[in-house]
């Protein structure tokens, strides 16, 4: 689907945004929508302007209209626009119209922000993963979406916004592709090849494996990898502009398949475990966008990538492994493998010359139990980093909710044979325990941990994502490192 800007609607269907004021649906702007009879029909049909609602008005002659609800006027935000555009795309997927014109509202804030949100919503909803189907369902007829700019709006600013939206959603789609790909295809070696392919001006990619991994002292990652026929890797991406104004490290969990290892998961728990590399996919995808945007921030990406399998060499409950920072870990449950490989990756990141470290991982099922599919769990002791992350998420239309890194729970990780063990008390603050474990390896700089186990996958699909990998948190982290979510002192 192509998205372009225009100054007037093309012939064919035209969509208008409608919000609710005092309980009544009214168009956001006084656009030349059809006659009163048309509105009567819409109301009679039950259209009330709610978020995500739509009404499709076709007459035997003349322009067909589509009304897109954005909900209560007082609650209006850019996410309402993303959802409205997504609804339009889905509505038209089964229609025969190849093009839609959509009026960009003039009276709800900067036009370029609205353009960006509408373009993001339309593109996010249009994603499909059908490369393994021999007869994929034909893509919807909709080929072109025209965003009609209100009079007086800056075309140049809108073009830049459109470009930004395309780069951000391309990155999200890249993450979705990496995650949706079956584990039999997306092995650590294949993932590493996808990372290497990003190499370019100011973007260096180094892949540590075998002996190199051993020399690093990545005993924890190597231990997890030993149960698999596929060799583990540690990938270091480094984007370096000439004069960086900030320096970040992003660390992502990359378990391309989590069987649980010898602490084997039940069959049901394994069905979606190809998405256990979503954290690494998010990090890699952010670099996709960085290499196109070329911002003046330096970003390191560190992704440990491995399978977690119960093969003959598998690490065993009771084993003690040594992470890159020298700390020893007693592995009492081989299914808590994410924190084990991140122990090495965070130790690696702690040595890099950066200002802040953020890790992202599908770390605990408990995160999904606590917060469901809408909110990722955020753990950090750094108030400024928390503010920036929450505001970056807000600008991306994604959601983070903070959980405390409660010091007193650190005792749950005490081991009698090693520096710490990899699990706490069963059924007790599992997500927080995961965060407290990682904190032991994160080093002294401001650090935040995002548990995306709940938000990374949606089997049923959601308004902005078809079923499967959601690509969640790509736009949040991108906005974070670009400074879009920088706190402005209030
Ligand atoms: N990859 C899982 C976490 C997960 C579960 C992500 C469900 C998405 C959906 C992780 O490696 C794991 O198995 N964690 C264990 C930790 C426990 C053994 C302390 C869990 O959540 O049960
Ligand atoms: Zn696991
Ligand atoms: Zn896992």
Distinct ligands: ligand BES, zinc ion
Largest sheet: 9 strands, mixed
Strand content: 15-25%
Q: What would the principal axes of the Cα set say about the shape?
A: elongated
What's the average pLDDT?
Answer: 95
C-alpha end-to-end distance: 40 Å
Structural class computed from helices and strand pairing: alpha/beta
Q: Work out the helix count.
A: 14
Low-confidence stretches: none
Count of strand segments: 21
Give the oligomer, counting copies of the same chain as homo and different chains as hetero.
Answer: single chain
Rg, rounded, reads: 24 Å
Q: Helical percent range?
A: 25-40%
Q: Secondary-structure map with pairings?
A:
Elements: E1 2-6, E2 14-21, E3 24-27, H1 36-44, E4 54-57, E5 65-72, H2 78-93, E6 99-103, H3 111-126, E7 144-148, H4 155-180, H5 188-196, E8 203-209, H6 211-216, H7 219-225, E9 233-239, E10 247-252, E11 254-258, H8 267-270, H9 278-293, E12 298-308, E13 320-322, E14 328-330, H10 338-350, E15 356-361, H11 365-371, E16 375-380, H12 383-396, E17 399-402, E18 420-421, H13 430-439, E19 447-451, E20 457-458, E21 468-469, H14 474-482
Parallel strand pairs: 1-7, 2-5, 2-6, 6-7, 10-12, 10-15, 11-12, 14-18, 15-19, 16-17
Antiparallel strand pairs: 2-3, 4-5, 8-9, 9-12, 13-14, 16-19, 20-21
Bound molecules: ligand BES and zinc ion (2 copies).
Give a nutshell description of this structure.
With 490 residues, the chain is an alpha/beta fold.
How would you describe this protein?
The structure is a single chain. This protein is an alpha/beta fold and 490 residues long. Helices cover 33% and strands 22% of the residues. It has 14 helices and 21 strands. It has helices spanning 36-44, 78-93, 111-126, 155-180, 188-196, 211-216, 219-225, 267-270, 278-293, 338-350, 365-371, 383-396, 430-439, 474-482, and strands spanning 2-6, 14-21, 24-27, 54-57, 65-72, 99-103, 144-148, 203-209, 233-239, 247-252, 254-258, 298-308, 320-322, 328-330, 356-361, 375-380, 399-402, 420-421, 447-451, 457-458, 468-469. Strands 8, 9, 10, 11, 12, 15, 16, 17 and 19 form a nine-stranded mixed sheet that branches. Strands 1, 2, 3, 4, 5, 6 and 7 form a seven-stranded mixed sheet that branches. A three-stranded mixed sheet has the order 13-14-18. α12 links the parallel β16 and β17 (399-402). α4 (155-180) packs antiparallel against α9 and α12 packs across α14 (474-482). The two termini are 40 Å apart. The mean pLDDT is 95. Bound molecules: ligand BES and zinc ion (ZN) (2 copies). Residues 258, 276, 333, 335-338, 362, 364-366, 368, 423, 430, 453 line the site of ligand BES.
């Amino acid at each position: 689907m192509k998205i372009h800007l225009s100054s007037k609607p093309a012939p064919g269907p035209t969509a208008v945004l409608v919000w609710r004021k005092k309980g009544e649906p009214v168009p956001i702007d006084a656009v030349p929508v059809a006659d009163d009879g048309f509105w009567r029909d819409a109301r009679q049909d039950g259209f009330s302007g709610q978020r995500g609602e739509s009404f499709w008005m076709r007459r035997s002659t003349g322009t067909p209209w589509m009304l897109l609800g954005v909900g209560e006027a007082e609650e209006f935000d850019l996410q309402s626009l993303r959802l409205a555009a997504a609804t339009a795309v889905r509505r038209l997927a089964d229609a025969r119209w190849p093009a839609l014109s959509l009026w960009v509202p003039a009276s709800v804030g900067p036009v370029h922000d609205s353009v960006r949100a509408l373009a993001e919503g339309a593109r996010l909803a249009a994603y499909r993963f059908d490369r393994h189907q021999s007869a994929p369902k034909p893509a919807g007829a909709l080929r072109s979406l025209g965003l009609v700019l209100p009079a007086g709006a800056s075309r140049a600013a809108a073009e830049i916004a459109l470009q930004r939206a395309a780069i951000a959603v391309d990155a999200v789609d890249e993450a979705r592709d990496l995650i949706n790909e079956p584990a039999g295809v997306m092995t650590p070696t294949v993932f590493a090849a996808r990372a290497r392919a990003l190499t370019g001006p100011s973007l260096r990619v180094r892949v540590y494996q075998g002996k190199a991994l051993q020399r690093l002292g990545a005993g924890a990652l190597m231990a997890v990898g030993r149960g698999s026929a596929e060799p583990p890797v540690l990938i270091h991406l480094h984007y370096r502009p000439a004069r960086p104004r900030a320096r970040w490290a992003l660390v992502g969990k990359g378990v391309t398949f989590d069987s649980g290892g010898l602490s084997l998961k039940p069959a049901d728990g394994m069905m979606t475990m190809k998405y256990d590399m979503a954290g690494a996919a998010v990090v890699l995808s952010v670099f996709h966008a960085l290499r196109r945007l070329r911002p003046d921030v330096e970003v390191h990406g560190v992704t440990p990538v491995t399978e977690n399998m119960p093969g003959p060499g598998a690490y065993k409950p009771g084993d003690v492994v040594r992470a890159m920072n020298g700390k020893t870990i007693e592995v009492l449950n081989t299914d808590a493998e994410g924190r084990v490989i991140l122990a090495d990756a965070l130790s690696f990141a702690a040595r890099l010359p950066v200002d802040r470290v953020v890790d992202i991982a599908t770390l605990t099922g408990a995160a999904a139990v606590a917060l469901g599919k809408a909110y990722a769990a955020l753990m950090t002791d750094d108030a400024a980093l928390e503010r920036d992350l929450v505001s970056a998420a807000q600008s991306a239309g994604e959601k983070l909710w903070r959980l405390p890194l409660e010091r007193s729970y650190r005792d749950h990780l005490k081991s009698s044979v090693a520096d710490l063990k990899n699990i706490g008390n069963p059924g007790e603050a599992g997500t927080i325990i995961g965060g407290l474990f990682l904190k032991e390896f994160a080093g002294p700089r401001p650090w935040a941990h995002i548990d995306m186990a709940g938000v990374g996958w949606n089997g049923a699909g959601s308004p902005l994502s078809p079923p499967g990998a959601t690509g969640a948190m790509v736009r949040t982290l991108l906005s974070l490192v670009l400074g879009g979510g920088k706190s402005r002192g209030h």
